[in-house]
Write a structure and sequence with these properties.
single chain, alpha/beta, Aspartate Aminotransferase, domain 1, Aspartate Aminotransferase, domain 2, 2 domains, 7-stranded mixed sheet, 38% helix, binds 4'-deoxy-4'-aminopyridoxal-5'-phosphate
């Protein structure tokens, strides 16, 4: 730390992204990326946009905003595009949280929430997940704070029903409820239609998972116009050009090839069923994941041992040292071949141990 670093950030512990090692070729199952390349239409559109990089992008991102709105069945004024969904989450902490509106989220969820809270000087509380790692919905009802919930949750993959989400939103009318739907396309039902009924609901989604664009950084929020105006005030006070021209073009190309996205999601869902079956047969316990990852533990090996043994065999998964989930590993669902390699490696690792 330099002697110039502001005191207000001195104790900030930044978010730790999943490792992206370059020293050897791994089967990468640690950051929940899509195993599939973006649509050719997205690649061609981004390359075409590269030829005009001397120009700033459209700060209002009108064309892509209209396409995202159409995809979501809402009005463009109800959508705001951001640099990954991380950015809209940060904007939400900036716009809707303060001393009078502290944040609340589960104790085990996306690790960026507490980081954003501390970055923005927002007080927060964490509500423990139940023993089965499910969200305690009643504890969030009428909680009177700005709620952040990932649905499906990470890293459990567990999904809340639309009825439960609505109960939380309806019971906190004086606070914004942010539903982070980064993984919704892998088996959940989006709560976006509820934005017309509740002016306190903000739904966030991303192109990083189901739409194969993690490297392009494109996310968005959907909510009533007034919420979008607030978030736009934050955007134009930080970075009006938050979505770059190549990313916008790629996003349009991706949305023009929705069939590809549906096909990719179907493949992930099928591979998730396969890997769940195979891991259970090997003695693993898995949560019932609705996301593009599984969350698995084995009674005979610690989470850290399994992580290390897989790494030594060229397979990267995500292990969290957090209490209560340290026995687990979060494993991204990849191609069928990748899942077969994973199952073979785990079979060998368990056999070597016996
Ligand atoms: N929400 C959750 C629950 C996530 O796991 C992630 C991905 N790490 C994000 C949001 C942010 O993803 P992105 O910024 O790539 O949209």
């Amino acid at each position: 730390m330099s002697r110039f670093f502001s005191k207000k950030f001195a104790s900030l512990v930044p978010y730790t992204p999943g490792e992206q090692p370059k020293e050897r070729k791994y089967i990468k199952l640690n950051t929940n990326e899509s195993p599939f390349a973006p649509s050719e239409q997205a690649i061609a559109a981004a390359a075409d946009a590269a030829a005009r990089l001397q120009l700033y992008p459209d700060p209002e991102a009108r064309e892509l905003t209209a396409a995202v709105a159409a995809q979501c069945g809402v009005d463009p004024a109800e959508v705001l595009l951001t640099n990954g969904s991380d950015e809209i989450l940060n904007f939400a902490f900036m716009a809707f949280c303060d001393e009078a509106h502290p944040a609340v989220f589960p104790d085990i969820t996306y690790g960026f929430y507490p980081v954003f809270a501390r970055l923005n000087g927002v007080p927060y509380t964490e509500i423990p997940l139940r023993d089965d790692l499910s969200v305690d919905v009643d504890a969030f009802c009428g909680v009177g704070k700005t709620v952040f919930l990932a649905n499906p949750n990470a890293p459990s993959g567990l999904l809340l029903s639309l009825a439960d989400i609505e109960r939380i939103v309806a019971s906190n009318p004086d606070n914004v409820v942010v539903i982070d739907e980064a993984y919704i396309d892998f088996g959940g039902e989006s709560c976006i239609p509820l934005i017309r009924k509740y002016d306190n609901l903000l739904v966030t989604q991303t192109f990083s998972k189901s739409r194969s664009m993690a490297g392009a950084r494109l996310g968005f929020g959907v909510g009533c116009r007034a919420l979008m105006q607030d978030l736009n005030t934050i955007k134009y006070s930080t970075n009006p050009y938050n979505v770059n021209a190549m990313t916008m073009a790629a996003g349009l190309g991706m949305l023009a090839d929705e069939a590809r996205t549906r096909q990719n999601c179907a493949a992930v869902i099928e591979n998730r069923a396969y890997v769940t079956r195979e891991l259970r047969a090997l003695g693993f316990t898995l949560t019932d994941s609705a996301a593009n990852f599984v969350f698995a533990k084995h009674p005979e090996m610690s989470g850290e041992e399994i992580y290390g043994a897989l790494r030594a065999r060229g397979i990267l998964v995500r292990h969290f040292k957090t209490p209560r989930i340290a026995d687990y590993n979060r494993i991204t669902v990849g191609t069928r071949w990748e899942m077969e390699q994973l199952v073979a490696a785990l079979t060998a690792i368990l056999a070597e141990r016996n």
